[in-house]
Amino acid sequence: MHSYSPSHEYYHQSIYTECNCQLSQSKFARKKDYYLFEFIDDDELIDEFYRPAMATCVKYQRLAGFFSSTTFAVVINETIGFVERGGKMELVTSHTLSKQDVEQIKNAVEKPEEILAKNILAELKANNNPDIAKCISIMGYMLANDQLEIKIAIPDSVINHPQSIYHQKTGIMYFPDDKIVTFSGSVNETGAGWGGNIEDFKCFKSWHPDKTHTELIEADIRKFDKFWHNNATKTEVHDLPEAVKEHLIKARSKSTQEFKKTISELTTSALFKKPKLVPWTCQKDGIDAFVKADFNGILKMATGTGKTSTTYFIFKQFFRDKKSTGNRVLIIVPTGRDRVGGQWEDFLRKMKEQNDRVYLYTSKASVQEKKDAKDSWATPPANGNLFVIITGGSIVNFPFNGIKPDLLVGDEVHGYGTENQMSTIKNSFDGTPYRLGLSATPERFYDPDGTKRITDFFGNIVYTFCLKDAQKQPKLPGLENVLSEYLYRVDFAPLTDEEEKKVEYWTRKIVVGTGSEEDPETSEGTVTLSEEAKKACMKRSEVCKKAKNKLEKFKELLQEIDHDTKNCLIYCQDTFQADDAVKVFQQLGIVDYTVYHHKIAARDVALDLFKQENARYLISVASLNEGLDIPQCTTLILLSSSANPREFIQRRGRVLRNIRNKPLVKIFDISALPSIFNEGYRGLVKSRLVQIWEFINASMSSEQKLKISDYRQRYNIDEQDLQDIVDGWCHGN
Questions:
Q1: At what angle do helices 682-697 and 719-731 cross, to 10 degrees?
Q2: Which residue has the higher pLDDT, 24 or 234?
Q3: In which element (H, E) is residue 236 found?
Q4: What is the helix (H) or strand (E) element at residue 689, kind and residue range?
Q5: Domain CATH for 98
Q6: DSSP of 510-554
Q7: Alpha-carbon distance 49 to 23, whole Å?
Q8: Do the bridges between strand 568-571 and strand 635-638 make them parallel or antiparallel, or are there none, so unpaired?
Q9: Is residue 534 included in any domain, yes or no?
Q10: Is residue 3 part of a domain?
């Protein structure tokens, strides 16, 4: 991984927001003006840049060290549109010459064009791969229609050093409205090049206000023109030999219909790269359990265990067992394109079959996106399947017209337990025969009625895979376990005198509001709370979550761990506490942090900075509880922790997603509880101790139990009682 300093504004802004084309919908394109790909995995470069760009560009100029016809397989669907809108590709590439070839050129036995023709034709004729032949026919079709022009570059140094190669790697893409994007990086114009390992990849846009973009683009255009017109130093550029051109044209698709047929055939070939997913053992067990329940029920799988990919395999099984095509699959998500909904959309577009359709329907979707989704719901693809991703709040605005989905998926299903939410879902989908619920925490704690609403509609929990299970089971034989193990440390910060008084005040309000001495925080729904008592419970808890002395503990912790901390996520109670955390960083002179919450306009930029390791610390609030994948994160600081198991389990799950060679995760929990004993505080204390116990229970830090022993003894809270509650969370009791 390379490390780059974010010293220019253009490194981290939105690349294609002004250009009316598909590239603007790309995940990375929406977020950055300056692409800097620093990863080994190839999927994002293809799916987030190359395909969206080729879907709308009208001219493509390329300097590439190597070229092969397989490049068309990577963007096979986009090639049709490129050809139909009269797009043209101009390519300057190289060709490998043998030592004998070089000697012939050196001694003027044969002209370079003749040697090139002989070699290229020999390679073309030697190939017997039918898929490569289809790619060649596409090249021939474009050559015959003057939509492809190829020139061959031979560096002067090859005469003395036959191993020398022309190794330029620059691209220029022209879009409607005179917009231009240029890129450079370690990518060859081949299927393997776009789909191989990437060291770095930089991209600039012509309409950026920073003149640096314009200057760099103009330099790239000048460089291309020099090679194209054979004016580059130390390089000879030759036209594609006529013999080669004639051979390719002869092999072309003879008509537009044949051209499109060839494209269609290639989409199912091995060259049309699509991610290969193999289900983990835990996923296989979940699939089997759901199928056995006749495609009805809830999968309770720990955060980070691959619920989305598990669902993908369920889709495949459903299509095999029930109906192969023409299915309407509806996926209800809690958030839209910037979070969970966007992740589903990206995943399904990547995994879909040729004739499948994928739409994300939200209030922020474009008019055209909404229309396409509505039209497809009325008439799904006859030779494929329809996937509509919809936010819960958009259900009432979608014209289902009485047509039920064949399969309904509720992601993060714990969020649909309120009476209003479930009423909307039931009214719209009560007749749906097959239903799948997904959540790490499907039970709504201290809300048995809400839990019953969920299970009544989606079915019972048919499969459970808890955190400790995931820490022990490998993804596949020989690979790392599904989730990381972790070290845990809790530190208590004392309440101020003023905060102690507030806790006492709100406790009195709770007692008055319940009419009972039993604390509602330990009664598990058996005590009826007035609205005033509910408010008092929240206020009392908030005092502890936002205790001022936590910031001093936080400062001490940063001083202790900063020297060896690389990817650290920090959870705060609210934006005010996040602002206080920022002040601590400023006091310590730590500058490589970023902030992510709903009041930050450029929060996607902040997230990118963290993912690209240009910021070591990410300060956030509850908005990151769900739908965020940051597996590189190795440290978690809980400046404020929720007593709600759903929330703290989701937060912990952000950092436990495992990747190869990931170090042991460290979790630091900064807590605050009253130091003054009051029997009325027992519920507050116990709810916090249960959460701490659960964290310790799943960690490698059993010694941390000693830190809560004083509180346990003071409030007569038995260890077994804590353990029973934690076990119940895992097993759904």
A1: 70
A2: 234
A3: strand 235-239
A4: helix 682-697
A5: 3.30.870.10
A6: HHHHHTSSS-TTTSTT-S---HHHHHHHHHHHHHHHT-THHHHHH
A7: 7
A8: parallel
A9: no
A10: no
Q: For the residues 299-322, what does the mean pLDDT come to? A: 93
Q: What is the pLDDT of residue 376?
A: 93
114, amino acid identity = E
308 and 447 part of one domain: yes
71-74: Cβ within 8 A, 24+ apart: 71/189, 71/190, 71/191, 71/193, 71/194, 72/135, 72/138, 72/139, 72/266, 73/131, 73/135, 73/191, 73/266, 73/269, 73/271, 73/272, 73/273, 74/46, 74/50, 74/191, 74/194, 74/195, 74/273
Q: How confident is the model at residue 304 (pLDDT cuts 50, 70, 90)?
A: confident
Query: Do 246 and 360 share a domain, yes or no?
Result: no
Residues 237 and 301 in one domain: no
Do residues 71 and 100 share a domain? Answer: yes
d(CA 342, CA 146): 39
The amino acid sitting at 305 is T
Could you read off the pLDDT of 507-518 as tens digits, one per residue? 998 888 665 544
| DSSP-derived secondary structure letter, 178 | G
Give the rounded percent of residues in the chain with a pLDDT score beyond 70.
Answer: 78
Whether residue 526 lies inside any domain: the answer is no
How many domains does the chain contain in total? 3
**Within this chain, do residues 252 and 293 fall inside the same structural domain, yes or no?**
no
User: Which residues is 89 bridged to in the sheet?
Assistant: 60, 148
Tell whether the model's pLDDT for residue 662 goes beyond 80. yes
Number of H helices and E strands in the chain, helices first, is 28, 21
- Residue pair 151/236 in contact (Cβ under 8 Å)? The answer is no
Nearest to 151 by CA among 73, 63, 69: 63
Give the model confidence (pLDDT) of 377-409 as tens digits. 999 988 899 999 999 999 999 999 999 999 999
H or E element, residue 724: helix 719-731
Task: Dump pLDDT digits (tens) for 212-234.
Answer: 888 889 999 999 999 999 998 87
Residue 41 resides in a domain: yes
Among 240, 266, 292, residue at a domain's last position: 266
Report the SS3 class of residue 408: strand
Looking at the fold, whether 45 and 145 belong to one and the same domain comes out as yes
Is there a single domain that holds both residue 304 and residue 336? yes
Structure-token match 């020099």, residue found = 226
* Main-chain phi, psi angles of 204, to 5 degrees: -130, 155
pTM over 0.70: no
Structural domain including 100 reads: 12-266
Strands (E), 9-120: 35-36, 59-64, 88-93
Structure tokens at 173: 């893409």
Q: Could you give the CA distance from residue 533 to residue 510 in angstroms, rounded to a whole number?
A: 5
Dihedral of the alpha carbons of 335, 337, 342, 344, in degrees to the nearest 10: 50
Q: Which of 234, 266, 298 is the last residue of a domain?
A: 266
Backbone angles phi and psi of 373, in degrees to 5: -65, -45
Question: Which pair of structure tokens corresponds to residue 653?
Answer: 């799950």
Whichever domain contains 404, its CATH number is: 3.40.50.300
Whether the CB-CB separation of 173 and 181 falls below 8 Å is answered with yes
Give CA 446 to chain center in angstroms: 32
Q: Do 238 and 325 lie in a common domain?
A: no
Output b/e per residue, 471-482; b: 16+ Cβ within 10 A. bebebeeeeeeb
Residue 651: CB atoms within 10 Å:
23
Task: Name which of 551, 317, 572, 275 is nearest 434 in CA terms.
Answer: 317
